[in-house]
Amino acid sequence: MESEAQMKLVMGLSLLVVLTAGVHGWTGEIRGRVVCDVCGDSSIGPEDHILEGAEVAVLCITKSGEVVNYQAFTDSKGVYKVAETMPESERWDACLARPISSFHEGCSRLGRGSAGVKFTYSHLSGYFHTVRPFVYRPASDVPSYCM
Predict the structure, then answer these.
(1) Helix (H) or strand (E) holding 2
(2) Gap between the Cα atoms of 94 and 125, Å rounded
(3) pLDDT tens by residue, 33-89
(4) Taking a C-beta distance cutoff of 8 angstroms, is the pair 51, 106 a contact?
(5) 3-state SS, one letter per residue, for 106-126
(6) Rounded to an integer, what distance in angstroms lies between the CA atom of residue 49 and that of residue 33?
(7) Model confidence over 87-109: pLDDT tens digits?
(8) Taking the mean position of all CA atoms in its chain, how far away is CA 96?
(9) Which residues form the signal peptide (predicted)?
């Protein structure tokens, strides 16, 4: 009995090796930042700050035509990241990153030019693509020190 079980295990492992032979893994990452443009001057300066907890959506189309959708939130440094490991033949071809919302009370209005960024993903496995920062502006009037 024991030898029969061992034989089935060996056959199963052999089948697994055959099925995975020739399949190469690929890993990609997309990252970016979300910032509050306190003065609304479209330039990032010392008065501006990162936005923690801002939501970003990343939509990618793979080489095989599959559409994959990711959701990310910024960390304490205002950075969001999405990553995926998949077969090389299924890797990302093109992506769109766009801001969804900012939960910051004082900075919740999306700035101009932050509607979304389309890009081709052509990096080798293990590399990342950086998206330009998304900018939110104050929901109310800008502070007097900005004028």
Answers:
(1) helix 2-20
(2) 15
(3) 999 998 888 778 888 999 999 999 999 999 999 999 999 999 999 999 999 999 999
(4) no
(5) CCCEECCCCCCEEEECCCCCC
(6) 11
(7) 999 999 999 999 999 988 788 88
(8) 10
(9) 1-25
Q: What are phi and psi of 131, to 5 degrees?
A: -95, 140
Token pair listed for 3: 């030898």
Side chain identity at 138, as an amino acid letter?
P
Angle at 82 between CA 80 and CA 137, to 5 degrees: 30
Contact 80, 56 (CB under 8 A): yes
Question: What's at 71, amino acid-wise?
Answer: Q
Vertex 38: Cα angle to 40 and 137 (nearest 5): 60
Query: Check: CATH 3.50.50.60 for 24-146?
Result: no
Amino acid 59 reads L
Question: pTM for the whole thing?
Answer: 0.77
Paired residues of 108 in beta bridges: none
The closest alpha carbon to 67, from 79, 57, 80, 55, belongs to 57
Report DSSP state, residue 8. Answer: H
